[in-house]
Amino acid sequence: MLEQYVKKILTSRVYDVAVETPLQPARQLSERLGNQILLKREDLQPVFSFKIRGAYNKLAQLTTEELARGVVTASAGNHAQGLALAARELGIKATIVMPRTTPELKVQGVRARGGKVVLHGDAFPDALAHSLKLVEEKGFVYIHPYDDPDVIAGQGTVAMEILSQHQGPLDAIFVPVGGGGLIAGVAAYIKYLRPETRVIGVEPDDSNCLQQAMAAGERVVLPQVGLFADGVAVAQIGAHCFDICKHYVDEVITVSTDELCAAIKDIYDDTRSITEPAGALAVAGIKKYVERDGV
Asked: What is the C-alpha to C-alpha distance for residues 190 and 249, in angstroms, rounded to an integer?
């Protein structure tokens, strides 16, 4: 399975729109924690997140007939903006169903990139159900935000860049987890080429769908999810994602809202960039890991 994903990652069509982002030393954080910590700056993508990679790679694999039908997705924001930009670049109509709780900034971001926004429901599952209804009614092609092999492969190009940018040993890579597309892509590539490197997922303690699935040995549905880190507010880990994660993710750490807020400040102190809560998960997780294990 890993070899198939690595081939898909190596041949992903992401660089028509995505950029190779720097792997930047977090000097103050490294000094405080007594470890060399590197930040993969996916906030520097054209849509400010890694999601452009998977969205574009999936669209690039569609047939001419599928492209003509137009695409639809459900997203709390980052996948939506990535898909809107990817669709505009390829000349495709994109409809994005977003929960009514989505921050206005992300709604405007989708519209600015040419996507048609439909606001529906209070959480991601409501938006997802409505987007699938539109597939039946309008004949759109559904582009899943995370649970699709081509999307996973696109996100996996993050790991491909990390290994090319850092030739030395890597003890662990900490990855934010929502639906699981990013960590699945990263785990597939890293474990194939550097099996000794630990892949550690980080989730909010009120949206820990992967941690609970790993404990149960099967996908579970959370009865509710916290909305502070709206970008990872997902009740169930993706099926394709879990097929990889259950074998190749070493551990999942959860963090509190307070720990996320502290991590946002840590990132600001080192980079002068302000991340959304979901973007600070990995830093919150590495701090907790170092303190817990005395690394």
From this structure: 10
Instruction: Work out the widest C-alpha separation in the chain, in whole angstroms.
Output: 56
206-237 tens-digit pLDDT: 999 999 999 999 999 999 999 899 889 899 99
Strand order through the sheet with 251-255: 172-176, 198-204, 251-255
Q: Where are the domains of the chain?
A: 2-44+148-293, 52-142
**Domain at 2-44+148-293: CATH code:** 3.40.50.1100
- Kindly give the residue spans of alpha helices, DSSP state H, lying in 22-77: 27-33, 51-60, 64-69
Closest CA to 89 of 63, 52, 131, 64: 52
What fold characterizes domain 52-142? Answer: Rossmann fold (3.40.50)
CA 136, 141, 145, 146 torsion: positive or negative? positive
Q: Mean pLDDT of all residues in the chain? A: 95
Phi, psi of 154 (to 5 degrees): -60, -45
Q: Specify the pTM.
A: 0.94
> Could you tell me the end-to-end alpha-carbon distance of the chain, in angstroms, rounded to an integer?
32
| pLDDT confidence of residue 122 | 84
- Please check whether the two domains, 2-44+148-293 and 52-142, share a CATH topology: yes
